[in-house]
Amino acid sequence: MKRNKFKVIIWSAAALSLVSCAIPKVTDIKQLKETPELKTPEIKKDSADFTGIDLKTYFTDENLLTLFDQVKEANPDFKIAQQRIEMANSFLKRSKSEMLPSLEIGAIVSGDRYGKYTMDGVGNYDTNFSNNITEQQKINTTFTPNYWMGARSSWEIDVWGKLKNKKLSAQNKFLASEEGLKLLQTDLFTDIANLYYDLIALDKRLKIYQDNYNLQKRAFEIIKAQREVGKVTELAVQQFKAQNNNWLAEIEHIKVEIVTVKQAISTLTGVYGGEIERSPTLLQTNFEMLNKNIDVDAVIHSRPDVVSNYYSLQASHADAKAARAAFYPKIDLGATFGLNSFSAETLFKPASLAGQLLGGLMVPVFNKGQLKYEFNIANGEQEIAFLNYQKSVTGAFNELQSVLKQTKIFHRVLDLKEEEVSFLDKGIEVSNDLYITGYANYFELINAQKSKLEAELDLLKFQHENTKNNVLLFKALGGKLN
Description:
Largest sheet: 4 strands, antiparallel
Oligomer: single chain
Strand order of the largest sheet: 1-2-3-4
Mean pLDDT: 82
Helix content: 55-70%
Structural class: alpha+beta
Strand content: 5-15%
Order of helices and strands: HHHHEHEHHHHHEEHH
Distance between the termini: 70 Å
């Protein structure tokens, strides 16, 4: 007898060995490309280490912070992302419950009418004539009822780690969805910040045109006075009128752009139009923060887009392991316990107590092809997840390096442009004086005015681009939202 049991164990082990040999292996997670050294602007030797930035310390404009709060509360995309987190959390809870035994409590009532020429029909009829049963044990042969009340439980033993890996996958997908929400929030905040500073830049541009138009009017008055005394021709007057009209048209066009940007901000914040409160200042560069030692790997892996892709990769790896475990035999245990009787009168008697234990081992045979396809899909999803992860790391590194380099360049450009505007401001005064004294003609006066306007607009353009670069720097450095 013992020898027969030993043979069964040997044959079972051999069968499992053959099954395991035919099971494909999960591809190991690949290693990321090594991150190169970050080429940043010159850093002082005594600089402190970079420890991160916070939204409300990086953006200090109260009007902009108010818009951030409005976006978080009202934007539909943000609310959709919050719902996706709730769904991911439900999947996680479900995966945890799958590892526990199921338990059901209830009652079942059924009835059978057996034919006289069936084994059950003949058996029940014959049983009623037995001297070994009581009257209560006799069976109704016309219609045989069956009453059951109790509990039943089933449990899949996770020998191969299928349920464990499903749970691990759900955990990582939940974490990825949380990071996805942070990424969406960061994108929304950078979008609203860019629109807000677009609006400020338009205000400044409008003021530049209005101020230069007022200066032009003063020069125009001089030209008209000189025409009256015959010192200039009507051509000079017409030239000034044409330039005035050009600037007036630009002023009206800027007002149209302001309306468009306001509408975009209202849409993001979920309000029906209205005035947008704003300050007159663009975002300045925080050079103290840039002079800190930056741990590039730590910064990159604090960004929600990179972290989200990392968790997605871990989830896909767990899915592939779960798909592989499906090739192994499935081991189930089950049990029922309760009251069972074929008559309502005896159902609640102690003698009606009944129970059952079940154990099963099922080996996939004809559905192996389907399991193989599912495994190949899971393995492919893991490869895609790794490529997305690598792509996000590469993009984050290049973005950070580019923003830091541009910050240094913008600093130099702005210094040069501010000097240029200062020189041309003095040039306007000189040209007016020279024109009045007859040492300059009206073309030189017009050109001086145009040069000053163009220089001021160029300076504003670079200030605006520097502001956008500083907004992107918050995202590139993995800025915290709380």
